[in-house]
Amino acid sequence: MEMDKLGVVTTFIHNIVVYNIPLLYGTVGEIMVEKSGSLNLGVEGIMAVGAIFGYIVGCYANSLGIGILTAFLMGALCGLLFAALTVSLQANQNITGLTLTTFGLGVYFFVGNGVKAVSWPVMNDYENIKNGFADLAIPGLSQIPVLKYRNMELLRGVLGSLRPAVVAMIASAGILILISAFWGSASAISFEETKWSMVVIFILCVISLRKTKINPVWVMVLAGLMKAGLALTGQWV
To answer: What's the predicted TM-score (pTM) here?
Structure first.
């Protein structure tokens, strides 16, 4: 059965929102922290530690509030650890942040697998937790025609009509990326200012994608390695 292309796009957009909103919260917090002159690259690890302890404690306490407070507390302790190392002991912020990310993810999997081996708490088994994540009726929102339309045909039609605009936006972004790679900026476009090494790398990547079945991710990795190699050897032209 042929896959619904529009369904794939809408699912992709939905997953972007679901999985990236938590990272967006961490990003906003890190932007605020950087205003004070501190660079914390351990945000992911801190969030992982807060998430695993908040979930476990919240389920066993059958309280969404206690779970959130526990997550805040564990995140604050990790932040205190980062501050003690970088401010009090003057440790390198970049190395400490990356170490904290590795440490936090390690704690996340260690604690999670340990609890899972004994008895993993299922959120639906705890009434207060389950109710805390239940659908919340927002007055007036259900009256919007697009959201009220059950068959979603109207929404599908709108998304289908926007396809040319989306393609144009993607093409524009690609052109801007190529301009930045080949010349640095649009004002510097000229034959003399062309970075021919980048042109060669781009052509090699296109040929690799066209002639082989190699994963595009590996093509991008290979392009990055070639770029780094040229920069290190001083052959960047």
So the answer is: 0.53
